[in-house]
Structure formats: structure tokens, C-alpha cells
Amino acid sequence: MRYQTSVDVANRALQHLGATRIDSDLGFDEASLNASETGFAYDKLRRAELSTSVWRFAIKKAVLRPMDVHTMLLRPTLWSSLTTYFVGHIVVDQNGQMWESTIPDNLGNNPIQSPAWEQYFGPVSVMQYDSTVAYFSGELVYTIDGSGVVRVYRSLENSNTDNPATPTAWDPTVLYFKDQIVGFGTLDAITEDGDEMLLEDDSAIIEMEQSNTTYMSLLDFNIGNDPALPHVPPAWTVIFVGGIGSLKWLQIGGPEFPFGSTIQPPYIIYPIGTGPVSQSPSRSIYRLPAGYLREAPRDPKAGSASYLGAPTNLQYTDWNLENDYIVTRDVDPILFRFVADLTNVRQMTDLFLEYLAARIAMETCQRITQSDTKLQGISNIYQYHKNQSKIANGIETGATEPPLDDYIATRL
Fold first, then answer.
1. Nearest to 306 by CA among 225, 404, 240, 176
2. Which of 24, 307, 327, 411 has the highest count of CB atoms within 10 angstroms of its CB?
3. DSSP three-state, residue 250
4. Strand order in the sheet with 262-264
5. Residue segments in the chain with a per-residue pLDDT below the cut of 50
6. pLDDT tens readout for residues 294-310
7. Residue 183 and residue 97: Cα distance in Å, rounded?
8. pLDDT of the residue at 282
9. pTM, two decimal places
10. Among the residues of 260-371, which ranges form H helices?
11. Surface-to-core class of residue 7, CB atoms within 10 Å of its CB (0-12 exposed, 13-18 middle, 19+ buried)
């Protein structure tokens, strides 16, 4: 069986040491030296080794926009075993990592242990919704109504110009899934004093008023079921906790989500030479995404197709990574490519996990075995797996074009 959990990696390290493996059920909570030492080292070394290379399995992308005076920061609520979460709902665990729900009716599934959650590696900066902007998939916006009520939304597609607060009209030809929201309108007859009346004959003078009701789908593969008509089993409901807007957006925070994500001001004291994007003389700042570990090349194979012998290398950028921000003169959205703080062992390659297990064995060897001879042997094993994993990763990711030197470009 392949690696499944962090305990599997720790047990592989103990196997290298010739030590007793820890119980798979108790894991790092087992009352033993081996569990205590490998458990203490695991997460620290996992992050360290992930940071050493641009690992293919840990590469993520996020669309980032320059922060302005209205930009807020995402603040997910702490996961609770008593709360039912929706698809795309974002929470934070006790270690500060963000997770997003992958299933509807997500109740009692611990994000650290359950496949019902995936780590969230999207933007943490939340822009105020602007009707003149076309948003990319994964971007976060917030709206504020006249009474000061804040709602947070996540775009579900590129070139998204829909108003996130406006329900999408029901379409009998569209396939809907559980928890999706639609608006359904009906025409009502009203008299001059506003009371509803029925049209008895042609002599009656009436006015028609459009009323719109918001429905939530109760079924997957829900198609052709008129929301205003009864169905068996029930297909729609007007009583629900969840989003109320466009299907092109996922609402993840607001009064409809008692335990949804909120936002908070960034409280930035801007460094010298930087500031909100609305201040054109200064540089822009972009907040790094959730789970960022290190930058990955923006377009690693940009020069693979040269044109008439022209220089094909990547162009230099003026990006400076400072604290949790990118400082640059750019003002447009950035498709940022980075190595993420991935914790899911099942998504890592076997060669990397062999490398990580050897590193854990090397770092815990003296404490567990008190053997210098054993340490030397483990060091050799570590170097072997390090070389093998990095060679394989290099083959998979391919060569990265170096930035184009200005002198060479002008000489050509």
C-alpha cells in the first residue's frame, strides 16, 4: 500500500533506523519516544523540504490584485464539528491553515483528517465588488448594502461580470446541483390599492407586478423541475441557510452564513515607496496567497518556441517579495505561481516521501538510536533519495528559461 498519512512517513523513517514502528491508530499520540520524536520533527521537516525545490505536486496558482484603500483580508472562522458546511465553505483549523469544503452537508469531518476538505491556496485579499471589473475564477470580493451588511463571495469562473448579489434566473434547460440558488419570478395581478385580484372578465382593469422568490436546489442533477410546483422527492426549497446570489459566484460569508468567512482591515503601514494602488506615484503591493512557501517561475518554458532566432527568454520583473507582499510597479491582476504548504500525503509523490522519511530518520537518529554508525548510514540514504527525487522532479517540470539579459537583447 502506498503512503497514506504522515504516520506512514514517520514509520518509514523508523524502519530506516531499525526502530519499532508506531501504532497507525494512535499515531503521534502514542506514548513512546519514537512517536514523540518523529511527531515533533515531521511538520517542520515537511515544510523545510517542500521549500527546497519547485515540486511539481505542490505548485498552485492564484490570481492576485493590487491592494487599495478598500481591500480587506479574509478571516475564516474556526472549524466546528457542530456546523454544517457547504461546498466551497472556507474554515481555519487549530494550526492556522485554511481549508475549503468539497462536499455539501459537510458535518463532523475534521479538515486535517477527512477528504471532505482540501487545503485552500487562494487569495486572502478581498476586493470591494466593482461592476466595471471582469473577475477571474477564485477571486474574492465583498459587498456592503445600505445598512452596512457585508457579504463575501468567491468567483466560480473567468470573465465574471455578474453581480454576485443578484440571483440567477431559473432556466428549465440548466442542470442544477444540491445547494445551488436560483431566482424564480411570477406575475401577480394587483389593484390600485395594492391588493391582489383575479382577472374575471375583460371589463376589469388590472396591473401586473413581477415578484421574485429565491430557491435552493435539494437535489443533484436537478433539471426541468419548476421551483414553484411540488415535486416528489422535493426538488427546491425557499427555507435554507446559504447564498442568495448569482450562480457564477459562491457566497462564503454574510448574514446567510452564521459561521461563514468574515473580513477585516489589513492595518497596513505602507513601506516607503509603496501604497494603495490608487496612489499612482507609488509602487503597488499584492498580498501573497494562503499557504505560500516560495515563488515558482511565472512561465517556465516561455522560450521553448523561438521566432526567427529572436531572444526567447523570460522578461525580468521588478517584483520584490517583502514580508507577506509582492512590491512592484505592476497595477494589473497577477496570475501568481507558487509552491504551496501542502500537507496531504496522498498528493505527494512517493519519491519525495522517501526523501522526507530519510530526512526525518537522519534528524532523529541520535535521539532514538544513539549510534554514530547508524547516523552515517542514514545520511547516505538521505543523499540518495534526495538526488533521486530532485532528478525526477526536474524531468517532470522541465527546464526553466533564465531571464533575458538586457545587454544580449540589445546586441541581437
1. 404
2. 327
3. strand
4. 249-253, 150-155, 140-144, 125-128, 72-75, 262-264
5. 187, 189-192, 194, 196-206, 208
6. 999 887 766 555 555 55
7. 35
8. 80
9. 0.83
10. 350-369
11. buried
